Amino acid sequence: MCLDMKIKNLKNTSGIGYKSFAKDGRMLIFPYRRGIVKLNKWLKAIPIKLPFCKEPLKPSYSSGFHIYCEVEDAKSELIMWREDVVRKVMYRKARILGLQDGKEVIVADEIKVLPLK
Asked: Which CATH class is domain 5-113?
């Protein structure tokens, strides 16, 4: 997952958005199968190298959680990224607002996946 375009830098913004996850039984799994998601706890993004994001049209930025601003946009990505569910998340330390596949996405350093009610 890479931004296609950076709209603007953000200054330590927080809020609520939506993120897709894979499921393994009752557990949520991060994209690219990078670990089990702990619910209702603040999670920090682990810096990873994103060599596939260095195409000419891709912006250069440090990795983080990609959070969709609209639930319908997150749902439309389920098939593309082979994920299973969309969950509401709180985010903080957001750094970038950008476009990913034509949809607004926030890149943040920390998220909290909210439990289902």
From this structure: alpha beta
* Residue 71 dihedral angles phi and psi, to the nearest 5°: -60, -40
CA-nearest of 70, 79, 78 to 99 is 70
In tens, the pLDDT along 53-88 reads: 655 545 567 788 999 999 999 998 777 666 688 999
- Residue range 95-116, pLDDT digits in tens: 999 998 899 999 999 999 998 8
> Residue 55 carries which side chain, given as an amino acid letter?
E
* Distances, alpha carbon 4 to alpha carbons 30, 74, 93, 103, 115, in Å: 21, 16, 21, 10, 30
The pTM score is 0.85
- Cβ atoms of 31 and 101 within 8 Å: the answer is no
